[in-house]
Amino acid sequence: MDIKVRDSSSKSLILLNQDLQLSPIARKKPSVGIYSFDEIHDVSCVISVKSEDCDVQNDNLKGIPCMILSLIGFSCSSIVCKVAYMRNDYLNGLDYAICRSIIMVTCSMIQVCATRVNVFEVKKGYRLLLVARCIVGTIGMPCYFIAIKYIPLSLCTLIANISPLMIGILAYLILGEAITRLKVLAVIGAFVGVYILTLHKDENYEQGEHYTLGIILVSCTCIAITFVALLTRVLNKGIHYILCPFWFSMTTLGCTLSLLCVYPSAYHFDHMGYTDIGLFFFSGLFTYAGQVFKSLAFRYSEASQVAPLQYFDLIFLLLSDIFIFNAKFTSTDGIGGLLILVSLLAPIFQSMYLRYSVGRDPSG
User: Fold this and answer.
1) Domain span at residue 257?
2) Which has the least CB within 10 A, 56, 87, 129, 313?
């Protein structure tokens, strides 16, 4: 049996297959009927209903590529940053943070001017959420980079990558997004792949006195990643997608400049050369591109759909370690990477199949 949805802009009927998985909100609706876009606006379906009146479209054919491009941007940023650290031992995370923030603010200002978006025009109900998203996002990453000083990097990676599972659960409970068995199995499979990747990475590590502090800090990072994803998804329902990257960049720059005023000795500008500045420039450029594509991904797709794709970042970084930094490839790297890849591709192919099945002509 089909569900008929009336598109008020074109007066046409769109047929949605009732077999598709609907969210708890959608299940409260009658099984068959005629809906206006006001009624279907808050229903999270597997496929999208396109309309100019709809703030957020569930379109995985746009959301998934945007998330992958976002991860490529973040991965390239990490690779360039690692090259800078390897070249100059004096550089630290604070030097990188302030340079990256300046580049991100510059890029965001250019984009805002080009698109003529009023960044100060934020709907009243979304202002506090935008502030929370910027603050939580700014705090999350420093906690991670401090944590890796006190606990093994493999453990940091494992704890931080619990976030996609948390995002899927909370998106289902709070946002009413659809969740299927395949999505759950994909996230669990990818997480197991992460665990396999981290095996035997820190066998010679000795537990220090700040071990508990490291666990707490990386747990804060995991929570921060989760809430940034959920807040970005909610915000994109009522504000322009550029606003999140813009105000996040401004918040990060404000925090780094404040820290510079309080602890100027923590920075090492006198040891930075033109090559270091150039590397940080490109790293900041890649980071901003990642932020923009991430905002677009959460605009077009449900948080529970695109959040697990964050595991692709580990595959990109694994390949960079092998081909760029000459790291030794092990069997656990291959098994873990393959398991992550298979787990993440399964829901993508399912989404493409469902969209094709619904969109094709029934007459053949």
Assistant:
1) 62-359
2) 87
Contacts with 281 (C-beta within 8 Å, 6 or more apart), sequence order:
99, 103
Give the single-character DSSP code of 148: T
Same domain, 11 and 127: no
Helix (H, G, I), strand (E, B) or coil at 209: coil
110 Cβ partners below 8 Å, 6+ apart?
Answer: none
Instruction: Give the other-Cβ count within 10 Å of 210's Cβ.
Output: 15
Residues 67 and 22 both lie in one domain:
no
pLDDT per residue as tens digits for the range 170-208: 999 998 888 888 888 889 999 999 889 888 666 555 666
Q: Is residue 17 part of a domain?
A: yes
Tell whether 308 and 200 lie within a shared domain: yes
Write the pLDDT tens digit of every residue in 288-345: 999 999 999 998 988 888 888 888 888 888 888 888 888 788 888 899 999 999 998 8
Cα–Cα nearest to 297, from 74, 20, 50, 61 = 61
Taking CA atoms, 244 is separated from 249, 296, 335, in Å, by 8, 10, 37
Question: Do the domain assignments include residue 47?
Answer: no
**For residue 105, which amino acid is it?**
V
**Backbone phi, psi, residue 315, to 5°:** -70, -45
Question: Does residue 81 sit in the same domain as residue 201?
Answer: yes
Phi, psi of 59 (to 5 degrees): -130, 95
